[in-house]
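Changelog-adjacent note: as of this version, every example in the card shows the full chain rather than a window. The one below runs 413 residues end to end.
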Amino acid sequence: MIDRRFFLKSSGLALVAGGLIPRVFVRMAEAGTSGGRKVLVAIFQRGAVDGLNVVVPYGEQAYYDVRPTIAVPRPGSDGGALDLDGFFGLHPSLSSLQPWFKDHSAAFVHAVGSPDPSRSHFDAQDFMESGTPGVKSTEDGFLSRALVAQKREQGSPLRAVALSPAMPRILAGAAGAVAMTNVDQFGINAGAASGSVSASFESMYAGAVAGALGGTAHESFEAARILKSTAPGKAAPENGAVYPNGPLGNSLRQIAQLIKAGVGLEVAFTDVGGWDTHAGEGGAQGQLANNLRNFSDSIAAFARDLGTRMSDVVLVTMSEFGRTVRENGNRGTDHGHANFMMVLGGGVKGGKVYGKWPGLDSSHLNENRDLQVTTDFRDVFGELLVRQAGVGNLAPVFPGYDCDRGKWRGVMG
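Full-length structure tokens:
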């Protein structure tokens, strides 16, 4: 049993000897810090990723008993999991992330999730992004409330950016986030007349719209001006980073460009789908393995690209719920309950799998089918928001939930 704990430490990096240490983090340790603005990057794995085949409890025989065709083999076997701590292993498709775990710059938490029992993708995602499980009336997202809770007098109009076609629920609210799919095309696009058309639209909004919408419009136009002047999209990946083709790689490449351009980014969000594996999930190879390889390589490229700037960046992953412990008749898994999260970046006290492991014996399962939730996702984000985003009071961020009620202890450096 592992205590419910968290990952960040206030200064320095705990490096270990060995050939797997990424050079990016060695340079980071030597530099100490890049001295830049702290950034929190969140990735939502939409569709409910199978956390049991991502962070594999190979030390528990029950895992293999109930997954005869899709279980990831034990470390040392052909296509086996990558050992993490003697009990948990990493899916082999995540090999590009293993060096960050080995040098204590990445950590995982297992049996984490929302306490709400919903198996609806829509409801579960809504509850997680609103930060109020079970409450459908919440109007804004918890990352937006976190930015408001900082109570800073001034912030960049690009302090919160979603790389997505529409504003995600998690950033909807009064913080003034912007959503875009391409940093080079954000704003009014009218060819040679873009400048005059943009000015006309801005003047129209300023004269005809008052209140919050007017402020949002002003911030959007200002964001477009900053992007035009800094041209972050022209920055090529650094340190030999190669992003995979695909939505996640493209989004993370652009988030890295925004960080390097110094546009005042504090919170970035993106998502990636394809995790709803009801049939043909596969084990070490197959549908899930292919998705995980792209996922892993995209994150690894992001960290390598930022180099020493990663000392100011923390990346966290999330998914609405896990999947059933037992495989189904279609060699897949159905909607479950608890899942995993990953945290990677500067200041992370990694090299461990955190969380209270409930076990996979049938007597320990949620509703006799799912991994139990033993760590609330709000505890994980609460620690990150305090340590990385500088939020002093979590009460308005997670209304009705006390992240500091003594049921867990953060492990800080």
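Structural remarks: Residues 211-230 form the longest helix (20 residues).
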